[in-house]
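Help wanted!
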Amino acid sequence: MNIIKGNAIIGQSGGPTAAINATLSGVIRGAMQAPQIDRIYGAVNGIEGILAERITELNGQFADEAALDALAHTPAAALGSCRKKLPAYAPDDPIYKKLFSILEKYNIRYFFYIGGNDSMDTVAKLSYYAQMQGYDISVIGVPKTIDNDVCGTDHTPGYGSAAKYIAATMQEIIRDCAVYTVPAVTIVEIMGRDAGWLTAAAAVPKKYCGVAPDYIYLPERPFDYQSFFSDVEAALKRHPNVVIAVSEGLRHADGHYVGENSQSGAVDIFGHAYLSGTGRSLEAAVKQQFGCKVRSVELNIMQRCASHLASGTDIAESIRVGQAAVACALEGKTAKMMAFARVSDDPYAVEISEIDITTAANHVRAVPDAFINDAGNHVTDACIDYILPLCEGEIAMRYEHGLPVHFVIDKTPVTEKTKA
Amino acid sequence: MNIIKGNAIIGQSGGPTAAINATLSGVIRGAMQAPQIDRIYGAVNGIEGILAERITELNGQFADEAALDALAHTPAAALGSCRKKLPAYAPDDPIYKKLFSILEKYNIRYFFYIGGNDSMDTVAKLSYYAQMQGYDISVIGVPKTIDNDVCGTDHTPGYGSAAKYIAATMQEIIRDCAVYTVPAVTIVEIMGRDAGWLTAAAAVPKKYCGVAPDYIYLPERPFDYQSFFSDVEAALKRHPNVVIAVSEGLRHADGHYVGENSQSGAVDIFGHAYLSGTGRSLEAAVKQQFGCKVRSVELNIMQRCASHLASGTDIAESIRVGQAAVACALEGKTAKMMAFARVSDDPYAVEISEIDITTAANHVRAVPDAFINDAGNHVTDACIDYILPLCEGEIAMRYEHGLPVHFVIDKTPVTEKTKA
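Answered by r_m:
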């Protein structure tokens, strides 16, 4: 494409994280400094919002540095998110025609989409349609997902903060569980349907805090109740306070989720099988097998929205990668995803560059074999060494009246403001 | 009792909190400065540890200020805890005889017990036995409980930190839930079996952050499904992202817990009724009634162990009340519980004094009527004004390698050290 002057639009898509607004602040920051970019628009609820012309103007809202800083420390997606998937390419598809008529109306020449695997699929399809139709636009994806399962990048923005939350919370939970002398098993369920990156972060306190879960089970290995019971039995012989980290996505060798069928035929008021979740299923199984005190804890959405405990490294990198996306677009590139390459382990250092969007879209990156121990019930030191630098550093969270200060974007559409 | 020179012992009892070690650090600090106190012992796992002579020496471990400071920011009970209840007074009861023979062996003249309602019962019984038997000892209770349900004090150490965690997390959860346009109900279950103090803290962000759960249900009001469904229906008409805070202790008018019977006869592998928990029960009920996306979130043990987000006010007061307990003992008092009196609302200020232990022991303080709205589905502004100052202030948590630094007490018993 030619480098032309025009407007930019930014959208957020997929599940919220503690760092997706830091990336948004980085893109805004970069775009405000670019002479080629005039107006900066926010797509409210991503692609879904563009189709409904819910487009808001951002320049005025971020005139001062304090607003950008507060945005970088706000959890969730400040522009709203969506889970819309675009159809396959077809020149006359009404969705694409509508999308591009609106992009043209707003003279959008720079399109930034911050999201996970599905969102990179959107970036790939949008840029392909534009190229095929000869619409001059630079479409750049910026990865974000706590799941860390996007291909082509060392890690994803958002993962470091979730990993820090999980590691810090695991340390706190282990201290909490250690206070009584009565044998007890605590099972902590961590997010990650297909990849065990988040669950692996439970091991991080092992290196410098001297505590870790007794066992860690990732979805990369089939789950087997007999091995699990042997593990728990051995742990209960060592000490009374057993703590186990499990991924929500644990599956048996036959592909069934562990959380699917533990209540042995229990049905809800509609007669549907009661899905109790992985932690609850294992809780019931341990109670049956050992008869001891058992408890399950889900870190649930706190692990993705606890921005007060975000990783300093993650937030700084998330801002940087947003700025780099703008630089990439200004070079006239399109159909790219921004990515991190780890160029040094000690000291930890990353370089940011762009990769072809097709490398990233629709693939899932699993935890590699070298990061899982032979027994399949814990992670290796190499895994901890990979995760630890991503959790390092603390943010300077601003508090008022005892609570973190968040930034709320005014999402009033341009169309409504014009009317007024 | 006469004021005599001797040794002190400190025990922790009941559920862990983010502030119980701050109180421990305050007692140690006070005892180290007291010329009347020679050795400072820690009872490992409270009364249970004294009976087993698991008694460790603390003086040497806290020679420097950094150790006391780290202890004050460590979650859970660093000395270990117990849930042992002492029998009623009987001069020849073997448990009391054993307890006092060990106290005499260690020349214990100052006994500090940090705990909740049950622990104050222990303080009452111990001091009564000592008085009846003419054993010279000052027995002082220092309250701690996230539940805030101890009588005779404006609030309890530990509550402010839990309330801050709940308020901050609620703000983050509400941001997280706001990103999609699809109607969804999120039910957040908060601790508190008999009193709604913790659940009420979910309302705190309303005052300065502009967000709050749509509804808050406390155990002080009977729960009724029809009113609940009307509330949810009204909320779904206002906006798509409904967030509701519920106490784990919600009960129907007939006294049954809401979490007891929702799975309509579902039984576990032993044929026991499946207790799904309050949040899960309401999740199933909303799904049945409205057919929309529903999710339940339990703040679980994180709300009591998240010391990284402890309240500055709570930690400072917890240290102070520990020091005050020592001062009280040095005045020759016994059978007392330390208590806070709020002497000013604006600016917030408390005074610490002692009350008779019998005032506190075995009573539960509920959320008063003035703090609950007429409909029984939210709290009043007066309630928020009561809670907010307890959450204020941030601690200077020390981090190393990305994680909070905790202090681990060496619990080796004196008897083993003497052998070595």
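OP: Thanks! One thing I noticed: The radius of gyration of chain A is 23 Å.
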